[in-house]
Amino acid sequence: MIQAADLPDTLAIFPLPGALLLPRARLPLHIFEPRYLQMLDDALKTSERLIGMVQPCPHRGDSETLHTIGCAGRVTQFSETEDGRYMITLSGVSRFRIEAEVSGFTPYRRCRVTWGDFHQDLGRCAPDERFDRPRFLDLLERFLNFRNLSADWDALKDADEELLVNSLSMMLDFDLEDKQALLEAPCLATRRETLTTLIEFALLGGSHEETLQ
């Protein structure tokens, strides 16, 4: 487990729209662009093997603008294809706040970051005392039926509450600002409430096109 003292001041940034990573969750990624292949090679040379996932802000008129809060993941699995691409898994470590972008000679972006606002990410998740699993799963079932989607209900019924909420937050195809709201939720209970609101909005005819990836 990575300790607070091991977290770097500068982090390689992967601004991938719609790809949400949360602490203690896992995100599979397909890496093929040359600049991100270089980013991965450089990350694997470090002891922490960290990459920062951040949502861009294209609605602000500048495709290069980033949200200030992202989540760092440790490369825990990777395999290389015959044509030089990588299939990797990032395991979420901690959220961070971007202080400034760092100029340099790398083809990928790097930022100076701070971690102090998210010290709780490195410990155990606080339980969601008000989590009503039957009610939540009933809402989820109505949503999936509405979207003509299927799910492994045995796995959902038995899943740890953090795994359940975080996995759905990552897999459901909400828009970028909704993904960012789920990322920035201060605790599991708030993330579950945000996720519930987004699902209810979709069932009421909201504009989102939620699908399971």
UniProtKB/TrEMBL annotation:
Domain of life of the organism encoding this protein: Bacteria
Location of the Lon N-terminal domain: 11-203
GO molecular function terms noted in the UniProt entry: peptidase activity
GO biological process: proteolysis
Record keywords, A-Z: Hydrolase, Protease
Pfam families named in the record: LON_substr_bdg (PF02190)
Family annotation (SUPFAM superfamilies): PUA domain-like
Mitochondrion found in the keyword field: no
Protein name per its UniProtKB record: ATP-dependent protease
Species, as recorded: Tritonibacter litoralis
Lineage of the species this protein comes from: Bacteria, Pseudomonadati, Pseudomonadota, Alphaproteobacteria, Rhodobacterales
